[in-house]
Amino acid sequence: MPAGPLLPLPELEARIERWIALEAASEEAFGLPPEEFSDDREEKFARWVVMAASVHPRFRFVRNETVHWSPPEQPLAASRVALLSTGGIRLRSQAPYEVDCELADASWNAIPREAGPGDFAIDHEHYNHADADRDVNCMLPVERLRELAATGEVGGVAPRHVGLMGCISDPSELLHGTAPRLAEMLLADGVDLVLLTPG
Q: What is the pLDDT of residue 189?
């Protein structure tokens, strides 16, 4: 069955707020009646918002009011590419991330393009990173990107990649502090494209 159109933003926000209030007032786990939602994606999103708000007391949902879409200005084969992961990835030599989501660790680590498989550590506790612990390329494909650059499919590898935490209950510092600084760094590195891998 094809998905229907998404609800207008104010109506969707009102429904989400209503479900959060119902959950807070209820001692029983509630179910979301399918007829309340225009499609499956909307229901899944509402469930996620309710779950996050119930698990993390400081959870603050922030909506991007503007989609900052930047179409590629040149072919991939002529582009310098950087990797950015919110999977809690860092070098072993770098300080661990704060894994408590309530403490909102918006710090980041620059990861040199030369970093090898044994150089990495992963601190995230909200996904199973056993496979990435064995092969970091599952989350931060540094070796695959170098291979693509060597064959000419990618124009070049950025001198630095970025590691962040992805479980941040209140993203204010991430949005207003970290993100602008990262953008400045990536621009200074001559990066054309960034591949994001979420944790």
A: 98
What is the reported pTM? 0.77
SS (H, E, C) the chain: CCCCCCCCHHHHHHHHHHHHHHHHHCCCCCCCCHHHCCCHHHHHHHHHHHHHHHHCCCCCCCCCCCCCCCCCCCCHHHCEEEEEECCCEEECCCCCCCCCHHHCCCCEEEEECCCCHHHEEECCCCCCCHHHHHCHHHCCCHHHHHHHHHCCCCCEECCEEEEECCCCCCCHHHHHHHHHHHHHHHHHCCCCEEEEECC
Write the pLDDT tens digit of every residue in 12-61: 677 777 766 766 655 555 566 666 666 677 777 777 777 777 777 778 77
Q: What distances in angstroms separate CA 155 from CA 62, 81, 82, 117, one per listed residue?
A: 35, 8, 11, 23
Residue 62 has pLDDT above 80, yes or no: no
**158 CA to centre of own chain:** 20
